[in-house]
Amino acid sequence: MAEKLDTGPLIEVLQEASRVAILTGAGISAESGIPTFRGEEGLWKKYRPEELATPTAFSQDPKLVWEWYDWRRGIIGQKEPNPGHKVIARWEETFPTVSLITQNIDGLHQKAGSKNIWELHGNIWKLRCTEEGTITENYNTPLKEIPPLCPNCGALLRPHVVWFGESLSPTILQKSIQLSSECDVMFVIGTSAVVQPAASLPFEASEAGAKIVEINLDPTSLSLYADFSIRGKSGEILPLIDEELKKTPKA
Ligand code: BJW
Known about the structure:
Blueprint: H1 8-16, E1 19-24, H2 27-30, H3 43-47, H4 55-60, H5 62-76, H6 83-94, E2 97-102, H7 108-112, E3 117-119, E4 122-129, E5 135-137, E6 157-161, H8 170-182, E7 185-189, H9 201-207, E8 211-216, E9 228-231, H10 234-247
Parallel strand pairs: 1-2, 1-7, 2-3, 7-8, 8-9
Antiparallel strand pairs: 4-5, 4-6
The structure holds ligand BJW.
């Protein structure tokens, strides 16, 4: 599929682009071996996270919720960025401005070298004190105690992630909306585009005149509205676009 892709019209658009925004979801990390949330092999199927990734679940059984996060940290900690993450990181040198808005909490974009990142749903390597709100980085896998407690005040620590029904950081959300409405091109990569408010960002971009490029294994509710909807693995499609971009002289 990827080999037969006609990238010509997309390359023309990219050659004119100066502000590129990229919205990523779990699919970008799938080829690194991190399960996505939805779909046959999704995390939701095996571990019912809709019951675990909520403030209610945490207040009822913090140990259970932490065991789930500890298990996921153990998987993520062993994984490396794939060619898709690496192309996105390199594009910070290719385009005048690249802004990466990610729903992922795995930290693989940072590991690949991306710098200008806006993490909409937090980061699994950060813990937040439920009393003081202080945020600390912690890379221990497994954690030394479950549930972990704040070394300063002894209160429960929680994962610094955004659960269903919780608000996103207003600063990060506002910045993401601004970047979406100011970009020339927005890539939407490996997201089922069902979780709000992230799923609205491509529409902000499109309404403001940006071209939308979706890369996904399957069609989504965004596919019909995208200017380019490319089916395939992002770890294959992104390097292919990058190669074409490098070898096509600007018109
Ligand atoms: C590949 C691939 C490969 C696979 N290559 N592609 C408006 C209307 C209705 C409801 C709401 C609304 N506004 C807010 C809500 C409520 C709720 C919501 O959106 N619900 C919907 C499900 C309907 N949103 C919220 O609660 C948000 N808070 C909020 O808005 O506060 C204000 C408010 C609250 C309540 C009401 C109204 C306003 C918070 C959302 C937080 C989401 N948190 C999670 C968990 C994070 C922590 C953790 O990881 O444990 O974030 S849920 C989970 O979904 C995670 C993800 O970031 C997020 C998105 O998933 P994603 O990335 O799209 O993954 P998948 O698995 O769904 O898709 C993977 C895709 O990749 C697939 O399409 C594959 O085909 C593809 N793929 N391999 C390319 N190799």
